[in-house]
Design a protein that fits this description.
Nucleotidyltransferase, domain 5, five-stranded mixed sheet, 13 strands, 10 helices, alpha/beta, globular, disordered C terminus, homodimer, 22% strand
């Protein structure tokens, strides 16, 4: 039995996965804040998942964790998980000490990418584009997370696509994240509300000129991210996930329309059929926690060496 | 013994590579125009290379060809090699029939990327950014060409980075290629001359305002391509090659300065140290032909399947 945990800023999504790869149990629990509380909430989530599904702790072969922040996959250390109040936490070692089960830790977007790829049965290459407060993607090639050399694979949110665009939190101007990141859109909108991007869409539907511009930015930003992923890594499919997918077709159809509009002037872009290569994760998809379970179960990968 | 041929619009660069991976012979010959002449010039180049280096034809185990255009690697067919007057050519089969040696064919930029990676001894991931008439990159991960799903891996030239930029040959606006492709720069410059990009640089040095703007475009476009490659595929190093490298430090230093200037406002970009991660191929580098030899020698790669 493998357990996977998607640890978010407010909740932990936990799944138990059978040896044949089926999700046989799932629960959600609140996430703690700060080092000790994060470790404790993870330990409690694993125990509760086991108890609720009549799984003996001794039958859990591994636990995988997907968590926002910079993750050292080898050591299981987490850095800069600002949404969790964590600056530097030896997460795998501490959780393993509590439960006596091997833990592996991965960046949440990368884990979700792996989960989405395997759930979808993708055999080639795909990207998981996470549209939430920020924007980042995970790339999965032949069933393996493409990690890259220094941890910036899939950081498409900080590619500038407009030298005259809004200033990004990263300091650059016109980053894709300034167009389609929930945080950047909320800031540009500047009005209060619990769900600012939803407010923007609704105000746009009602004819508000500022909101119409920001809605167009959202869709064009998503389209730009898709284009970058296809024209650099050449993934076959881009699966869109993250908090903004709560917008449903108002997100997916909008990005698709932007891709179609952008391709109208370009035979080359039309030949790529990008509008047919995007999908959106269904609401409540367990992809992120499932991907974490796969990460937990993964044996260290053999190095591939070129034999010229 | 392996032979590699980099087939360009005007010349073929051919190398013979020993079993231990050393280049033991090299020659250049003019390329023919049209299907028959291209095949004939390739066959003659292999024969001449063998004769000049006292290599028996029977000792040549494989010939690899890097060629501009769309290549079906499995069949060895070349499509749309417009600079060679080739629309659709069964290159591997025809050359193999003439010489009785197994031929493999690859896109020239991808072959050059592999050659540059192996010559450099790169063990992680790298991109080869070809700045010539057009702009494209090849990505090599762990010693293997990253092919992607549909043949657009590394097509960074057609990522738009300015919605108000010049119209690209592909129909989009503000593509990276409009900034740093030799063809696009020559068109924007609009004055006659055999080496328009060199003319632009020299006119910029002399204070011409148009030329100064285009020189800045060249450097910023190269920098944008480097950023895209690192923030999507996260390659460790970007090696710059292609015709524009004849500009020498006026190309390399300019791109490096642009990367430094762009990072000034962004701690995130500074943390990536992009200015330290670019290199330029030395003039006359045999990387493209050497990479073609490696392509020729490559056995079909085993599929990598994820074992969750």
């Amino acid at each position: 039995m493998r357990v996977g945990l998607d640890v978010g800023g407010t909740k932990i999504d936990a799944v138990a996965v059978s040896p044949s790869g089926e999700i046989i149990g799932r629960l959600r629990r609140p996430t703690g804040w700060g080092d000790d509380a994060v470790v404790e909430s993870i330990v409690l989530a694993v125990r509760a998942l086991a108890a609720e599904n009549a799984i003996a702790m001794a039958d859990i072969g591994s636990v995988g964790i997907g968590i926002p922040g910079l993750v050292d996959v080898e050591s299981g250390r987490v850095l800069h998980a600002v949404n969790l109040g964590v600056e530097s936490l030896d997460l795998a070692a501490r959780a393993q000490a509590e439960l006596g089960i091997p833990f592996r830790v991965e960046n949440d977007v990368k884990a979700a990418a792996l989960g989405a790829a395997v759930l979808r049965g993708a055999t080639g290459s795909m990207a998981y584009l996470n549209l939430g407060t920020g924007v980042a993607a995970g790339i999965v090639i032949d069933g393996r997370i493409h990690r890259g050399s220094r941890g910036t694979a899939g950081e498409v949110g900080h590619i500038s696509v407009d030298p005259r665009g809004r200033v990004c939190g990263c300091g650059q101007r016109g980053c894709i994240e300034t167009l389609c990141g929930g945080g950047a859109l909320a800031k540009a909108w500047g009005r209060s509300g619990a769900l600012p991007v939803k407010d923007i869409i609704e105000a746009a539907d009602a004819g508000d000129a500022d909101a119409i511009r920001l809605r167009a930015d959202l869709h064009h930003g998503g389209a730009a991210a898709v284009r970058v992923l296809v024209l650099s890594a050449d993934v076959d499919t881009v699966i869109i996930g993250g908090g903004l997918t709560a917008l449903g077709p108002r997100l997916e159809d909008g990005i698709r329309s932007a891709l179609q509009a952008d391709a109208e002037t370009s035979p080359f872009m039309r030949s790529l059929h990008l509008d047919e290569r995007i999908e959106m994760l269904p609401a409540g998809s367990p992809a992120a926690a499932f991907g974490a379970a796969l990460v937990g179960a993964a044996v260290p990968e053999k190095e591939i060496v070129f034999h010229g």
